[in-house]
Amino acid sequence: MGFLRFQREYELEADQLGVELVARAGYDARWYRTYVDRAQNAPVVPASGSDEFLQARAAVIEAIKAPVRRPPTLRR
Amino acid sequence: MVTLIGLLALPMLAQQSENAFSLEKERVLGEALAAGVRRQSKPLEDARVDAYVKRVGAQLVAQLPGSAFPYNFEVIVSEATEPISLPGGHIFVPANLLLSTQNEAEFAGVLAHSISHSALRHGTRSATRGQITNTASIPLIFMGGWSGTHASPPQEL
Known about the structure:
The complex is a heterodimer of chains A (76) and B (157).
Chain A: E1 3-5, H1 8-24, H2 31-38, H3 51-64
Chain B: H1 2-9, H2 23-40, H3 47-61, E1 72-76, E2 84-86, E3 90-94, H4 97-100, H5 104-119, H6 122-128, E4 141-143
Parallel strand pairs in B: 1-3
Antiparallel strand pairs in B: 2-3
Helix pairs in contact in B: 3-5
């Protein structure tokens, strides 16, 4: 897939609106930034919070886990 | 701080004068681009995850002062760290995002950023400005990056 990133002006706009959306939705807006600081370096991080979030997370882990390969059968 | 940002941010939604695309044309473009993503990606196909992502997404979209598009959230098997935000309200969420965010507030933040790109019509505004020379070139994926200008230090949490 090709990728096209938005220019910085649009990123600033998206941040302005995005932080407002999370605050209005009742989330702690201080979490808006935290992901950016470490996302690229830590693809799987410890999680906490609502059961619903943790359940969705567990479902992803279950769904994308690599299929277990059977060990090769040894010929006698 | 949030209140002040709110006063500044919402009027941006009305400032769409620099967009040569009608909403209808943007919807058509978004559908075509979304079809391109679907052809080249694999859906996670887990009802629990789909329901969760749609619930958080809808909660955020509900905060928009009227949405021009019916927002659509699809979860794909991908190790990408950011959603793909297309014109017309199509948001493709990489399953990995649920593993790389710590809690719902952090996940919602990433999703809100992507929704904002669609709501502010950044794809078609870029095209209008000539920053995209060929909007028909599929697959053409719009990804949100981050500027992090409205951030509080993590240690305050």
